[in-house]
Amidohydrolase
Amino acid sequence: MRLLAIRSKYALVGEELELVEEVELVWEGGRLVDWYPTTKKVSDLLVMPALVNAHTHLADCYFPDAWLRESLSEIVDPSKGLKRKALEEADIKEAIKMGMEALRSTGSFAAADFREGGAKGLKEALEAREEGYLPFGRVEKEEDLEEVLRLAHGLGLPEPDFPTPDLARRAAEAFKAAGKPVGLHLAEVRKEPVQKALDLGADFVVHGCFLEYEDLEELKRNGVALVVCPRSNRWFGLKPKVKEAIEVGVKLLLGSDNCTFNKPDLWRDLEASAFELRSEGAFDDEAARELLKAVTTNAEKPLGLPWKTALVEGSRWPALLMDSKLLALDRSKNKYATIVKRGGPEALVGVVGKAKLNRPWSSAGWR
């Protein structure tokens, strides 16, 4: 089977995203088989894992920048919000395709998408047949449970008691029994007891703007991850708990959230998170590394991903080729911080996956 090798100036390898320099990485049949230091000429590249968007609503790509002045509850209330009617009239298949194309163009190759509309909404989304699309369905009525369980990658509740406490509990039990992940919005616009998420066996909670330190400690003790959506939260005047999550050590993930208001570009959420940390005197190179883990290696277990998302032996997860010269990594005093603050689709020059280069790039450094 044909080998594909890249000699790069930098790479982020392993679960902890260790930054190594002057390295050669070798793929065979789409699988990373080895990496090691090299003394041969290297290219001006940073090789890193592709990104994972841990929370999206991609169908909302169909109506960008609607409702600029309305409140969050007016827009997204699951029973009577403005978005509910708009989704009924949207081409869901087309919206999912648009969203996934936008994600891939920025280096994200998986999206945990909270899909509205019960079984019908899942069927519409899955018609797009998009690789890396991971729908987290919701059970909106009793007779939907079995079909939602069959179709969805995981359960994605808009609130802990949706649509009723009993049906939410039974849906969560069914998904856990099937080995599928459970996630839910929690404490986004008001304080809610974290015990509600624990009772449902949640693998992750989304937003958590009103969680206190003791709540985050409880999530950490129970192995529940926190997905923060910094741009979305700030759009609606809410404070994302990035600093608190890093301080406590709860597993942190990032999502771009609602595609109506936010381009699904995790580089923007990385930079927004850096601004949050800087404003609270908490941004340094180690915090930047934690942010990069939040969009790569941290996502694997909570989201139930079928791929190993770190650059480790045996991984089939795509690798991003970033222009290290454009990122100014050679001159950087804090390289993780530089990747967070200066990374973006303009620096993405290629993607390695399935033993091929998916975007054109110079052949220098290839074997």
In short: The longest helix spans residues 92-105. Confidence is low (pLDDT under 50) at residues 354-367.
